[in-house]
Amino acid sequence: MSNIDFIKEETAADIGNFLVGRLLPFRQKRQIGPFVFIDHMGPAKLSEYQNLDVAPHPHIGLSTLTYLFEGAVMHRDSIGTEIEIKPGAVNWMTAGKGVVHSERTPEYLRTSEKYLHGLQIWIALPKELEETEPSFTHIEANDIPSWTENDVHYKLIAGDVLGHKSAVPVHSPLYMIEIKNTSNETKTIDFKNQLFGESGLYILEGKIKSQDIEYGDKQILITKDAHLCQFDMLPNTSVYIFGGDAFPEERFIFWNFVSTSRERIDQAKADWTAQNENFPKVPGETEWIPIPENKFNSK
Predict the structure, then answer these.
(1) Are 127 and 96 in contact (CB under 8 A)?
(2) pLDDT band, very low/low/confident/very high, at 298 (cuts 50, 70, 90)
(3) Which end of the chain is more exposed for a tag (fewer CB within 10 A), N or C?
């Protein structure tokens, strides 16, 4: 019997500037460990008059992780951060009690053709840290642990697992692992007794095989026993494994807000609509994104 519990195809979602692939949440699975939201951006080719322009918008109760394969994004936030993220680096922003940020094409790329491709991820905070002060950490690509085994290339983007520890300052036990088989041979990946909690696997490109069943790109696999123990990677395949310990409390999600409390989300909605001091401004930015009408609560 297959070890895979759920198989989900990537579905399109509109973030305003272009379509992205929505990977999590979905109806059968709202969270995978502490991971509550995953978007696959692109790959998109933008012309000299097309740019990423996500105006200032708020978050509470979560950390965001941005990881690019191609392109560049300028991040600005209400903490005062202004930094460009490039492929292989990690932007880690903890919203806590409330943060506001924008994401835009850097100025030097705005009048030329460019590409954008990457992952944007939300990770819920433990209940006791939901109202922590917001913070931001940028980790350069060469500071992300990477290694090669049997011609398979690994990166530990976040977490402490497989004998390595990422510099990303996570707030609960979790992991996000990049695995690439660039060889012309099928490789067996064996993680028996090395992962923990709930596990999901996203096939960015290529194919994997698990217990004689083959799965293709743009699919997310969720395991029944919460451990992705062993699978075969076909040649020229890239996958991302993410997961960790689930929280005991239910999480509510409305728009960009994550909380264990519906009342806290209602307060965040009122604060953002009123544009009051509970959501500080992003320096140098005057735009802001209103709460979308009829935005449903996922719980």
Answers:
(1) no
(2) very low
(3) N
Distance CA 69, CA 162 (A): 23
Rounded CA-CA distance 170/166 in Å is 9
Length of the chain: 299
Residue with the larger pLDDT of the pair 43 and 73: 73
pLDDT of 66 higher than 90: yes
What mean pLDDT comes out for the span 13-26?
49
Please give the pLDDT value at position 39: 83
3-state secondary structure the chain: CCCEEEEEECEEEECCCCEEEEEECECCECCECCEEEEEEEEEEEECCCCCCEEEEEEEECEEEEEEEEECCEEEEECCCCEEEECCCCEEEEECCCCEEEEEECCHHHCCCCEEEEEEEEEEECCHHHCCCCCEEEEECHHHCCEEEECCEEEEEEEEEECCEECCCCCCCCEEEEEEEECCCCCEEEECCCCCCCEEEEEEEECCEEECCEEECCCEEEEECCCCCCEEEECCCEEEEEEEECCCCCCCEEECCEEECCHHHHHHHHHHHHHCCCCCCCCCCCCCCCCCCCCCCECC
Q: How many Cα atoms within 13 Å fall on the side-chain side of residue 45? A: 1
Q: What are the residues whose beta carbons fall under 8 Å from the beta carbon of 249, sequence distance 6 or more?
A: 127, 260
Tell me the C-alpha distance between 124 and 250, whole Å. 11
Tokens coding 24: 């999590």
pTM equals: 0.89
